[in-house]
Every structure is written in C-alpha cells, then in structure tokens.
Design goal:
By secondary structure, the chain is mostly helical. It contains five helices and four strands.
C-alpha cells in the first residue's frame, strides 16, 4: 500500500521560498561539510547547488551557511545556528503536515490505483452529444 507524502514549499513572498531541494542541500552540506560533496550526493550540478545556496543567502538576512574557500587546507561549509533552525523548522512542519494528511486522506489510500509508479491513467473523455459534435464540425470548417 502507498504512503501519503506531502511535498512542501514555503513561500515567504513572491520571490523568496524554501522547499525540499534547498533543505536537502543544507542537510547534505551539514553532513559532508562541502557544497561540492552535497551536490554530488544529491546528483546535482555544482552550479545548481551554488545557485540554491545563493538564493538562500538572498532570502534571509542572516547567513545559513559559513563557507571557507579551498586551498591546501581545503575549504568547507558549516551550517550556522540559524541554518540549523531553518532545517529543523522545515522538517518539523513537514512531519506535522504529513500527519495531518494521513488524518484526512489516510482512509482513502486503499482506493488508490495499484498501477506502477510514474504510470498515469489517461483522463476519460466525456461523451459529447450529437448536437455538440455537429457544432464543432461546423466551426472547424469555417
């Protein structure tokens, strides 16, 4: 049987948001201590990871990540206390939202089709009346 999963994106305003990709990047950066390693772990280009990090830096007035440039001692990344708070708040909100989804939709899981993941059922077209079909043909021939 399937399990419900809500995917969240929190929009702070029209241009600033945080969602599963940015949070996953922060978590991987925290765990690996490296933006490039986090990008590899997420199967993401370094450029894309850097863009997401730049977006996070523009979203908040406080830094979420401290970075050190590479060199002989190597570079690295560290989540700030604020960065940790953002990740924790997002994950807690996600957990609570998924619990609510289960409360409201859990009983409906048994009615979910057992088709393979990724395969979608086609939308059933409604039967048109002969008058509607004739009107469409007349309009198309003009």
């Amino acid at each position: 049987m399937s399990r419900l999963k809500i995917t969240l994106r929190v929009d702070f305003d029209a241009v600033h948001a945080i969602g599963p990709g940015k949070v996953a990047l922060l978590e991987k950066m925290r765990d690996s201590g490296s933006l490039s390693q986090a990008a590899r772990d997420l199967d993401m280009s370094y450029r894309r990871a850097w863009q997401l990090l730049a977006s996070l830096n523009q979203t908040f007035r406080e830094p979420l990540v401290l970075t050190a440039t590479g060199g002989s001692g190597g570079g690295g990344t560290t989540l700030t206390e604020f960065g940790e708070a953002i990740v924790a708040a997002y994950r807690q909100f996600e957990k609570e939202t998924n619990a609510r989804a289960d409360k409201y939709f859990g009983a409906m899981l048994k009615t979910v089709s057992s088709q393979r993941e990724g395969a979608r059922r086609s939308i059933t077209r409604t039967q048109r009346s002969p008058a509607t079909a004739a009107a469409r043909r007349a309009t198309a021939s003009r």
